[in-house]
Amino acid sequence: MRKFIKEFQEEHFLKNFVKLGSYQRKFINEHDRMVMLFLCKKGMVMNRMYTKNVIETRNLTKIYKRYVKKEGIGGSIASLFRREYVEKEAVSHMDLQIREGEFVGLIGPNGAGKTTFIKMLTGIIAPTSGEISVLGYYPNDMKNAFKKQYAVVMGQKSQLFFELTTNDILRLFKEIYEIPEHDFQRNKEYFIELFGVRELMDVQVRTLSLGERMKMELIVALLHDPGILFLDEPTIGLDVVASRQIRKFLKEINEEKKTTILLTSHYMEDIRTLCRRSVVINHGVKIYDGGTEELFGDEEPGMVMERLYGEADPAVGSAPADDAAVDCKSPEDDL
Amino acid sequence: MKMRKYIEVAKVNFKAQFAWRADVIFNMIFTVSKILFAYLLWRMVFSGKEVVSGFTFHSMLSYYIVSSFLSQLEMSAGISSEIFQRIRNGTFSKYMIIPVSMEGYFVAMEAGIVLFYLAFDLIAALLWVFIFQIEFAFVTDVFILLSALCLILLGLFFMVQLSYYLGILTLKYQGIDTFLMIKNNLMALITGTIVPLALFPESVVRIMKALPFYYVTYLPSMLLIGRCQEEALAGIVIMVCWCLVLQVVIRLTWAKYSRKYDGVGI
After folding, report:
1. Which terminal CB of chain A, N or C, has fewer other CB atoms within 10 Å?
2. How far is the C-alpha of B70 from the C-alpha of B156, rounded, in Å?
3. What's the pTM?
4. Residue A30 near chain B (CB below 8 Å)
5. ipTM for this model
6. Closest Cα of chain A to B266: distance in Å?
7. What is the pLDDT of residues A239-286, one digit of tens each?
């Protein structure tokens, strides 16, 4: 039975789903299209039946309390005696399930609550209310067993020690994550080959370029084979070539290592080329959860976001020029 | 296996010090200049006198060299500022997401840094003993020597705990400058690095003996130059108690305030 399901999934789900999502869709007749759609849906159902949720949130809410002060010296003096606070709901009643091995894009304008959501998933901050389960753990308990099963890479916040070489840092993380020597050597070699950074391993991190540093961030994050990888703007500030390389690596890691990846990015090309599924949030509220292709269709990313947010997101479209001009493609067409 | 991660943290921080050569040189110059200053000061104080408050000129300089050496090793202030800066700029999560005890991480970090400076500070101290032909007073009793070493380790550990504690207070108060200033002033006075505590009135010394700072550099220095030997055991017991109390306070503070961390910053 399991063999049949596996074959069914491989034959009908993977192939047909890929084909349906691609450029060829335009050239198949209506009958074939219906058959493929049916098989695709069957495959999705099967796929969903035999993979588990690794991330589950229900009614997840985060409210920040901010201190406000009236303008001028008078306001400053008054604040010594009486403080005023305002509340901001950064994430509001978020329901989300992510299955093992999925590559999900989290999209939203600045201040939408994307990073706050990731911080709650990783346990860095505690939710104000709601339910949350990541790999079966309540993240904010900060259990070491949980921390060993995920990794976070934040484009603007480095995890590296700038005075050290990458080799030194990898050795440190080997001990911190208690990785057996054999696994350590195997993973290290795999990532050095994948990222093509052999000659940079003995160079001080502070002397690396932004693109090189991001590769090192990913190697360090992935060294312990995390089940989930949280990526917050990993291509921010990178040039076209470096962004494309990072996307290629992420795609390979998702496919080869079956790592579940949750990616936030303002660069829609990151989302369109990598994520089959996208979640759009605005003002902390989920406003879309579904296929990335269905989200974008043939529209320009900026137009889509304007339609969703009700206003233009200035960050969208600021990706490297040739990326922004790329038409909507399936993940398999690019890279 | 668990211990290995902390040993590696210490090794990494030890190695990282090699990147800052100027720091090493200036640290040595600072040690040397402090001893030179003390030599000139106490030479004036002792002009025409053989003994001041039970100290001869040479025993006073021995005390100064040992206490300077120990206070140079106490470099835990960096922990407070590291935690403070990272909480303020939202990068403290770097430590939160790795599977280690955060306090253990900082203890290991401090150990790595101290080990690095230990050699250089020792060379600087020994140089002065030879240059000024100081008749260096040093304890010969093995029990007292071991007690002093034990107190030094407890003192350094206590200071790491205190710096860590003040650092995590940033979660509550957002700024810890005042706490650090109070700590530094108390330290300078009570650790006896400015003036030996033996020069203070008896009532003041009695109060100081109840506080942990007395045992950080002052008592170990006195033990190493062969004085206050009767206080060794009591000192160890008091320091162990202080470390335990502070550990409980740290746990409670972290449990109460860690939820205040919002990971946002400048």
Report:
1. N
2. 9
3. 0.80
4. no
5. 0.83
6. 12
7. 888 888 889 999 999 998 899 999 998 888 889 889 999 999 999 999
